[in-house]
Amino acid sequence: MPHPKFIAHLQAIEGLSDDERRQIAALPSTLRQVSDGEILLRQGEDASRCVFVVSGFLYQARIVGDRSQILAFHVPGNMPCLHTLLVSPMDADLVGLGPSIVGYVAHSPLKQLLDGSIHLTRAFWRETLIDAAISRQWIARLGAQAALPKVAHLICELAARLAVVGLVKNGRFQMPMTQRHVADACGLSIVHVNRTIQELRGRRLIAWEGSEIELLQLDELRALADFTPDYLT
Amino acid sequence: MPHPKFIAHLQAIEGLSDDERRQIAALPSTLRQVSDGEILLRQGEDASRCVFVVSGFLYQARIVGDRSQILAFHVPGNMPCLHTLLVSPMDADLVGLGPSIVGYVAHSPLKQLLDGSIHLTRAFWRETLIDAAISRQWIARLGAQAALPKVAHLICELAARLAVVGLVKNGRFQMPMTQRHVADACGLSIVHVNRTIQELRGRRLIAWEGSEIELLQLDELRALADFTPDYLT
DNA sequence: CGTAAGGTTGATCGTGTTCAACCACCGTGG
DNA sequence: CCACGGTGGTTGAACACGATCAACCTTACG
Of A116, A139, A162, which residue constitutes the final position of a domain? Predict the structure, then answer.
């Protein structure tokens, strides 16, 4: 039983039958520990297997000019490089964020499974469409929002995605990322991110100590961020 | 024979057999003129058919706060809202850019066709993955580039995408968008876009008169924009 | 003609960057 | 045990890129 969180996530997106769940669970997979900052897949590399997140976080980043831009975060239940199944070269580095556990599923058995089931293909296709919707939301954030809502929006998105897999308790969740990661994700300088977070703290919207974030006033935070969670499913 | 450009585009992405091409061409479709600024689909609307671009341009935009953010442009051969096949509500408005011609294919016959062919499903899935790769590139642009490379990159991307469908001749192509569209796509003010374009003109990288752009020094423009076209296929 | 839309220009303003320094924390090795 | 070096966080000051405001010009079109 290798990846219950991934199956649950898929289930939440597109209903699966018992049999389909069994078929996915039967896929051969291997688990592996990932340390903070470790690069799982490099930009340009041809992947021969898919990754799924069991615990911890991953992110995808690309060097553009002299800075690093984060393109996406991945929480438990996500399958970051599912698209390599059809378009093999990675267009960004896949990196561990904090100590994490990931699983690998080789492309060939997964392809075989999907070849045999239109409905499962649909489910996995849909998974990549959710990722695309998140990317589109990032475009809106990066292009049109000021620093404060940008950071607030990122926090709202991560909280909502973690909530789907049951990792938010009483408005609190583990957040191993540093202010540098937030800066690279939002296209801001690290200094300004620091001041922005202080502003969020000063307004009593969030508490962020160590690696734990607490959402103090979710509604106000979402209003500030112009956040609605519907695009995540 | 309703959508030769779309089939050619799909063909370029994933090889199709003669029979598959015939099947796609046999899909019932209707053509329609679209005027500049006309909204084909609204954010939140449930689409019951897919759109493909025959001639002209479309774009997707979303209002965020007090500004409009363009999320994507669509050139002839693209199928903008293919994802509505699996995730029906539109997450942005789909708008005509300049007078254009689009075609409609109802969801149900398309679903039926894909249900019968894993390979065609793969091909259409892959089409959406290319869109996702473009979105990811936009994230990198918006998050990490300065104004001049941002605008240069957008021009490079459109030129490369138009070249795939044979709409670039001697480095010249039709570009019906105004500076406002560029501003909304790049997250810049219209005034600054104007100055940026003048800078590009001043450096003899592009000529942009009326609705025609000419690329004067493609290599230099791409170097400035940090552009590589590989993500488009 | 009159009006609207797109484009251009100049001046001023402000958000976020850059540079620099300092602090707190923590694991490591002398 | 403490000195140390590294990482992440915090603060202040000066700067710059791009936004904003306002005006004017050209062109297209009714």
Answer: A139
